[in-house]
Amino acid sequence: RTRARRYAVGASTVVMACNYSGFRDASLDADFGWVQYDWSTDKDEWVQENPMDCEAAASEQATLLKAAAPNAVAGLYRSGPKALPWFPEVRAKLDDPAYENWFVKFQDLQKTNVPVCTGSKCSALYHDQTQVPQRKETNGDDYDNGECDEECDCGAQPCGNYVFDFRNESLREWYVQTLYLDAVAATPDARFYVDDRIYGDNQGNVYVSEMSTYFSDDV
């Protein structure tokens, strides 16, 4: 006689959750085995910080989940190709001129399809404002991007999507060690959700997901 197998479907399910206006009610996610919170969680609050820090909010959200469901795993968010300055470890490198070659640059600052400057800050490092927090007066209808009451503070650089230049060996070493291996050492049951991708077309154009389609022209 074959014994019927039983599965804990909830415990083997991954859910990606987010709440812009504050922390998400962790009890809503307590029945899932892996809860992946997007970097936008609590964004309405942390975009007002000087400078922004989405990781502190993510850590607090994970603590709330563990209190509601001790066996659940709170996944760690990473963007594969994008260097997002609201992550403190990434911002520290963006702000340090010694690491400027870790990031893709504009090809010609006089001929760009996306702004080089935002507010009072400018950067020769390629960046765009797709899904990026902006000051209320310039955000238009894109509320979901996050709205800063004053000029958004992402450190020394304008707020934007920057792109890692993986041709640099020292970047590759730091990227793997700091963003992944160190996180695993600090949180042994860590799981990662790696978002975004670099891709091309048959005309030789290169794109980064959820970024300006002018990326190829500008770099």
Descriptive account of the structure:
This protein has helices spanning 43-46, 54-68, 88-94, 169-186, 215-218, and strands spanning 14-17, 34-37, 73-79, 82-83, 117-118, 121-122, 134-135, 147-148, 162-163, 192-195, 198-200, 206-208. With 219 residues, the protein is α/β, with parallel strands linked by helices. The protein has a four-stranded parallel beta sheet. The radius of gyration is 19 Å and the shape is globular. The mean pLDDT is 92.
List the helices and strands and how they pair.
Elements: E1 14-17, E2 34-37, H1 43-46, H2 54-68, E3 73-79, E4 82-83, H3 88-94, E5 117-118, E6 121-122, E7 134-135, E8 147-148, E9 162-163, H4 169-186, E10 192-195, E11 198-200, E12 206-208, H5 215-218
Parallel strand pairs: 1-2, 2-3, 3-10, 7-8
Antiparallel strand pairs: 4-9, 5-6, 11-12
Distance between the termini: 65 Å
Count of β-strands? 12
Query: Can you tell me the residue ranges where pLDDT is under 50 for at least 5 consecutive residues?
Result: none
Major sheet: size, sense and barrel closure? Answer: 4 strands, parallel
Share of helix, binned:
10-25%
Structural class: alpha/beta
Question: What share of residues are in beta strands?
Answer: 15-25%
Strand arrangement, major sheet: 1-2-3-10
Over all CA atoms, what is the radius of gyration?
Answer: 19 Å
Morphology call: globular
Mean pLDDT: 92
Contiguous helical run count: 5
Helix-strand pattern, N to C?
A: EEHHEEHEEEEEHEEEH
Question: What key phrases describe this protein's structure?
Answer:
single chain, alpha/beta, 12 strands, 22% helix
